[in-house]
Hints:
The complex is a heterodimer.
Chain A: E1 5-7, E2 10-13, E3 19-24, E4 31-37, E5 44-50, E6 53-57, E7 65-68, E8 75-79, E9 88-95, E10 104-105, E11 109-113
Chain B: E1 3-7, E2 10-14, E3 19-26, E4 30-38, E5 45-50, E6 56-59, E7 62-66, E8 70-75, E9 84-92, E10 98-100, E11 104-109
Parallel strand pairs in B: 2-11
Antiparallel strand pairs in B: 1-3, 3-8, 4-5, 4-9, 6-7, 7-8, 9-10, 9-11
Amino acid sequence: DTGVSQNPRHKITKRGQNVTFRCDPISEHNRLYWYRQTLGQGPEFLTYFQNEAQLEKSRLLSDRFSAERPKGSFSTLEIQRTEQGDSAMYLCASLGTGGNEKLFFGSGTQLSVL
Amino acid sequence: EDQVTQSPEALRLQEGESSSLNCSYTVSGLRGLFWYRQDPGKGPEFLFTLYSAGEEKEKERLKATLTKKESFLHITAPKPEDSATYLCAGQIQGAQKLVFGQGTRLTINP
C-alpha cells in the first residue's frame, strides 16, 4: 500500500492557461474522487469515478473542468482557461470495494493562478 | 440543502486539558458521519466512521459520538502532537460524495 499519489504537488500558472493534474490511487481501489479545498474551508466534492465511469459530478463544476480515468487506473483533472478563483488545493481520494468506507486522500496539488 | 457545521472554528488548549469539538448536520438521510484529521500541507487522514445514533468509537485520546443531529469528538488529556485541523463529513444515502464541515483548528500548547 503506497498510498494515493498526486502530481505535481504545486502548480503556479497565469490566468487563462490550461493545467492538468494527475492522481494515482491505491492500486486495488476501484473508486476515485476529486475534491477542492480553499484555505480555512473543508474539502468540496467535485467528481467521482467507479472504475473508468464518471458517475457523479458536482453542479459547481463548470465546463472548464474535465476529469478522466482511462482504463480505471490513474485519473487526470484538467482546468481550461484558469481563473484566479480556481486557486485552491485539489485533493484526490480512493476507496476499495466492500463495506469499508475508509477514504484515503493524497497530499493534494496546490494550484496558484496569478 | 445538505449542510455540515463545525464549532468552534479554532480551539487552543493546554496540554492535558480535555475538551470536545462539535459537528452538527442537516443531511437528508445520513448514511454515515466521518471524522478526519488534517495536518498543514497534507490531505485528510481518516479517523472514524459512525453510522447510527448512540454509536461511539475510540482511538487513543480521541472518542467520537453520534446523536440524531450532531456528533462530538472528545479529546482527553491532549498532547501537542494532537494539534491539527479536525474535519467532519456526512455521507448521504444513495450518494458517494462526502459533505464536509469547515473544520476546527486545534492547537495544544505544551
